Amino acid sequence: MALAAVRWSEEERGGLLRWILPASIALHVVTFAWLPSTHPSPTKLPPPPLVLEVADVPPPAPAPPPPTPEPTAEPTPEAAPARTASRAPAAPANVARAAREAAPASAPASEAPMDFTSTVFSNDGPGLAVGGGGPSLAAPASAPAGAPVRSSARAAPAPPRLVPPSSLARRPRAPGLDAELERQYPAEARRSGISGSAVLRVRILPDGRIGEVRIMSESWNGFGPACERTVRAARWEPPIDRDGAPVATEITYTCRFEVRS
Question: What percent of the chain is predicted at pLDDT more than 70?
């Protein structure tokens, strides 16, 4: 009976050991898991209070008042005529200036330059440009006192009235000048195969003759005189004003020189 009790107690002891070991491990795990939660959390300090300081800001200084305008003395009645009299001599200058400003208005408006193009086959050599206008005449000497004054038997003709092309009823017409332009083509330019143009300012008289000619530009030295000789080679149809009378006018004329193979 005693042996049985001892054997039972050994078996019971072994069973207890089998249960105690896992229970001890579980207890330690629970204990370690519980320990962090037992520590009190650190006390959070409240934020420091905000301190506001109120300062009195002085208002801005007012703007200074505008200066009081000084009273101007009214002109006396005697000073007014003097001022008017001092400005009176300026009237002729204003009239002269107005006349100078009105002068360009009578200049011809935009006018299309007249031109023609021709092919060269022959040439008679370059020439010189001849400007219009005759030599100036010297003033006659004054007659001695008491001598009879002789009137000239023949007065100089008045210059023809010059009308801009924009005010003409019919502009001047050039005759057929193609063949003449071919003859006037400079030989050196033709041999070198040089083409170009020349621009003239031409005055056409009431009878269709050519008056003053000015060479405005030329692309090759010699095209300007050749163009002038071509323009002077024939008489033009005269310009007619709006009253139906022949008048003088000035036009821009262009000659184009082209070498064709």
Answer: 49
H helices present in 134-185, as ranges: 178-184
Listed residue (169, 165, 164) closest to 240, CA to CA: 169
Considering its fold, how many domains does the chain have in total? Answer: 1
32 within some domain: no
Interval 23-41: pLDDT, tens: 778 777 777 766 655 555 5
Q: What is the DSSP string of 173-207?
A: B----HHHHHHHS-HHHHHHT--EEEEEEEEE-TT
What is the domain-level CATH number for residue 216? 3.30.2420.10
* Domain, as residue range, for 209: 121-127+162-261
Order across the sheet with 114-119: list the strands. 114-119, 249-258, 196-204, 210-218
Q: What pTM does this model have?
A: 0.44
CA angle 167/108/175 to nearest 5° reads 75
Asked if residue 22 has pLDDT above 80, the reply is no
